[in-house]
Amino acid sequence: MACENNTVNRIVEILDSKTAEDITVLNVTALTTITDYFVIATGRNERLTQALCDNIEDELSKDGLEPVNKEGYRSGDWILIAYNDVIIHIFKPEAREFYDLERVWQDAVSVDVSDLLK
């Protein structure tokens, strides 16, 4: 079942259409005040993580949404893109394994977005 947040659904679809891997959505509303959702995805290499970031920004900009913050783009290991109620984490495989956000935020509610994936 898709997420109740349309921006999250749109981000998942954008990531999936551009070969992001292992897309995960966590609802962190009950755990933090900084955001409502984390969208976590993996890109195989630096160029792909940067391309995924660029594509999200381009597509959401068409919907009138602009990020409030972006970090890590230059290195491409872990790119964080913050929109008001969604923070997107795009990792290279090694960085995702190292930081293991799913374990760190294990008390978050995992959102099933499988119906949005091709």
Structure description:
- This protein is α+β, with helices and mostly antiparallel strands.
- It has a single domain, classed as 2-Layer Sandwich (Beta Polymerase, domain 2).
- Helices cover 34% and strands 26% of the residues.
- The chain is built from four helices and six strands, in the order H-E-E-H-E-E-E-H-H-E.
- The protein has helices at residues 6-17, 46-62, 93-99, 101-104, and strands at residues 21-27, 37-42, 69-71, 78-83, 86-91, 109-111.
- A six-stranded mixed sheet has the order 3-4-5-2-1-6.
- The protein is globular and about 35 Å long.
- It starts with 5 loop residues before the first helix and ends in a 7-residue tail after the last strand.
Structural topology:
Layout: H1 6-17, E1 21-27, E2 37-42, H2 46-62, E3 69-71, E4 78-83, E5 86-91, H3 93-99, H4 101-104, E6 109-111
Parallel strand pairs: 2-5
Antiparallel strand pairs: 1-2, 1-6, 3-4, 4-5
Entry keywords:
alpha+beta; Beta Polymerase, domain 2; 4 helices; globular
Strand and helix order: HEEHEEEHHE
User: Helicity range of the residues?
Assistant: 25-40%
Mean pLDDT: 95
Q: Which descriptor suits the 3D outline?
A: globular
Query: CATH topology, what is it called?
Result: Beta Polymerase, domain 2
Q: Largest beta sheet: what is the strand line-up?
A: 3-4-5-2-1-6
Strand percent estimate? 25-35%
Question: Number of helical segments?
Answer: 4
N-C termini distance: 14 Å
> In the CATH classification, which architecture applies?
2-Layer Sandwich
Radius of gyration, rounded? 13 Å
Task: Outline the biggest β-sheet.
Answer: 6 strands, mixed
Whole-number total of structural domains: 1
Secondary structure class reads alpha+beta
Going by CATH, what is the homologous superfamily?
A: Beta Polymerase, domain 2
Give the uncertain stretches in residue-range form. none
Count of beta strands: 6
